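Open question from group meeting: does this chain pack into something compact, or does most of it stay loose? Before anyone orders reagents, we agreed to write out a predicted structure and look at it together. Recording both the input and the output here so the notebook holds the full record.
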Amino acid sequence: MDFKIVHIDETDSTNRWLKDYPPSLSAGEDVVVLAEYQTAGKGCGSNSWESGRGKNLTFSMLIHPEGILANEQFRITEVVSVALCETLAPLVNEPVTIKWPNDIYVGDRKICGILIENRLQGAAIKDSIIGIGLNVNQRVFLSDAPNPVSLYQLTGQETDREALLHQLLTAFELVSASQTVSRDYRERLYRKGIPALYEDGSGRFQATLTDVQPDGRIVLQDETGQQRTYAFKEVRFIVYSL
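Structure tokens returned:
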């Protein structure tokens, strides 16, 4: 992929910025917009993203997947999640994993969030906007998020954000062509095979994450041996503040 990279100083949301990108410019073109600061960066659902000006990587990618049907769109989540893990793993000493569906964790702390918005054309995906907030050089987090962490906090060193972005885009291209991305995604799942606390509409329960289905639904096995299957937002991980 040959990404056109656009640098901007400030925007409310890089995802929103790309939604307004002129169709005459974006037809078939893969674009990355990188902001020094987002005034209203979003995570999935109603979650917000804390990021100091010029400290982190807050950007969105506009891509045009070929041959991915609407009911196969979870593959995009798999690709970007695995690419982030591949990029970050050599830089830190703790395991880098994917907290379903697409938060990136180092140990038990969140280093990256992803927000994917797909636009359809008939039964296929026309294009995808992939928003990424990656904590790079931020030293202190002031929000009430329970467990954020940055590369600086993990390594004690500043990281060249532009070089890191190019490493990630290279990894994204390689993973996009991989035949093992679904397997790699599942092998990197946070808490896979480990009994842990979860919560659904009926309350908290202990279960073991056993799989993620091709459509993105998570499969948990509770203490009675029953399998429970959930779509996004139907169940949440219980993660305590660190």
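Observations to bring back to the group:
Residues 207 and 224 are 9 Å apart (CA to CA).
The radius of gyration is 18 Å.
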